[in-house]
Design goal:
mainly beta; Immunoglobulin-like; 9-stranded mixed β-sheet; 6-stranded antiparallel β-sheet; 4 helices
Length: 456
């Protein structure tokens, strides 16, 4: 666990281009504009997990010949196993999955956890015993030192992919006194002992409510730096509704530049529980490309769009923008460059070319979209329109949706083997051509051919 990015076990559970506009109807979203931090640094020692807690055998599910039983907790050197029995008395094979990307509703002491993975097939009239593991390191990062309550949920499916989702099922331990601390995470990661153990530092912490959106409360925001200088952001989301909610972070701005378009991460949060959403800031824009935009991994302002969905992926209300102000961050960005297209709505700005085969394995052509209009503009490039030195090229590119008055990153990534197959090296690229589009509420541009002379 010394990697710390899996930043602190997936950024303290993924510390693991363009940005969408916010709908005008924000009636169920409240952003509390406060950056008053109240840091808490506690004892330098690190407690050990209490390994005396037990459970009684508990039937978790018993329907239509399918039965799941939680038997006991077994404490090992690095984690605790929840021992489970899966029984199939039906006439068809059944698959049981928990803690997967597709279905994960596990929690411990009120905090959603990524641990607890199970994937087991059980034939008709057969039984399987499996262990669901929870890492001590991950639990301690959440401030969990005594296991009181565990919630687990299963996707039960047959060979035709018909699924039953059990939803979260709660198991109480011998230590369950009904008191669950939902501020344990943000206080625990400020502990001098935990910081010393993993070698990270806290750049900024705000443990006050910063947003209320569609029944979800964002109750803290933290920026940390790991021993390698990489930075991560975590947000705690509390589900105050009576149904599980998928909380997502989308459309990331560094300062005034939209650096990522689309969903960055999504966490399912059970009713009354807390989910920690994480973002490794170094991964939003490749570190080799950041300087071309005048950005660093330590922006003074990080803006993310927060969205909520039900378990069927339907939006449960309007999205909202959360602005995190980093008092020790860099305010810089670079909006200058070669303008290759301009009109009343936008400037398309060429920022340069980067080729690092050992790292990127591709050549990057980098652009900024400067939105000069008073409305959100969405840009795109025709996928099959790129030619370099007269040769058609496959490319990976990011469309970008940019808010009024701001910038958005748009990049082409061209595979080095594709260039070589046409006798082109990065230093011989002299001509680039592609078709460019954008649209907004009142602005629209279709099939504009952009031709660039890079011979100089």
């Amino acid at each position: 666990m010394k990697k710390l990015f899996v930043l602190l076990s997936g950024l303290l559970i993924a510390i693991s281009s363009g940005c969408a506009s916010t709908p005008s109807n924000q009636s169920s979203t409240t952003v509390v504009e406060t950056n008053e931090a109240t840091p808490v640094v506690v004892e330098a020692s690190v407690d050990e997990l209490d390994r005396s807690t037990k459970i009684e055998p508990t039937v978790l599910y018993d329907q239509d010949g399918i039965k799941i039983t939680a038997n006991e907790l077994v404490y090992g050197n690095y984690g605790v196993d929840l021992m489970l029995t899966f029984e199939n008395s039906s006439e068809i094979p059944v698959n049981f999955v928990a803690g997967s990307i597709g279905y994960s509703v596990n929690s411990v002491n009120g905090y959603m956890v990524e641990d607890g993975y199970v994937n087991v097939d059980v034939e008709p009239d057969k039984v399987a015993n499996e262990a669901m593991n929870f890492s001590y390191d991950n639990l301690m990062l959440y401030g969990i030192y005594t296991i009181k309550q565990i919630q687990v949920g299963f996707d039960i499916s047959d060979e035709d992919y018909n699924s039953i989702y059990t939803g979260p099922i709660q198991i109480s331990t011998s230590a369950d006194d009904g008191v669950i601390e939902t501020k344990g995470y943000v206080e625990n990661i400020q502990s001098a002992g935990i910081q010393n153990k993993y070698g990270y530092t806290i750049d900024y912490v705000n443990n006050q409510t910063v947003m209320e959106i569609n029944g979800v409360t964002i109750q803290s925001e933290v920026i940390i730096t790991n021993p390698d200088g990489k930075k991560g952001l975590t947000l705690e989301a509390v589900n105050t509704t009576d149904q599980p909610v998928k909380v997502s972070l989308r459309n990331i701005y560094f300062n005034d530049v939209c650096a990522h378009d689309g969903t960055w991460t999504t966490t399912t949060v059970n009713p009354g529980k807390v989910g920690v959403l994480t973002m490794t800031l170094d991964n939003v824009v490749n570190e080799l490309l950041l300087p071309y935009y005048g950005l660093t991994n330590n922006p003074s302002t990080i803006t993310v769009t927060v969205g909520t969905e039900n378990m069927d992926y339907d939006e449960t209300g309007p999205t909202g923008d959360l602005i995190i102000t980093n008092p020790n961050g860099d305010t810089s960005y670079d909006g200058d460059g070669t303008i290759v297209y301009s009109d009343d709505a936008i400037d398309l700005i060429y920022k340069g070319m980067v080729n690092e085969d050992d790292i990127l394995e591709s050549t990057h052509l980098m652009f900024l979209v400067n939105n000069k209009s008073g409305e959100t503009i969405h840009t795109s490039v025709d996928y099959d329109s790129l030619s370099i030195n007269g040769y058609m090229m496959d490319t990976v590119f990011g469309s970008v949706e940019v808010k009024p008055g701001l910038f958005g990153i748009m990049e082409f990534s061209v595979d080095g083997e594709d260039l070589s197959a046409n006798g082109i090296s990065p230093d011989t690229i002299s001509n680039v051509e592609f078709r460019f589009d954008y649209d907004g509420d009142t602005y629209e541009l279709n099939d504009q051919t952009i031709t660039m002379d890079l011979s100089e």
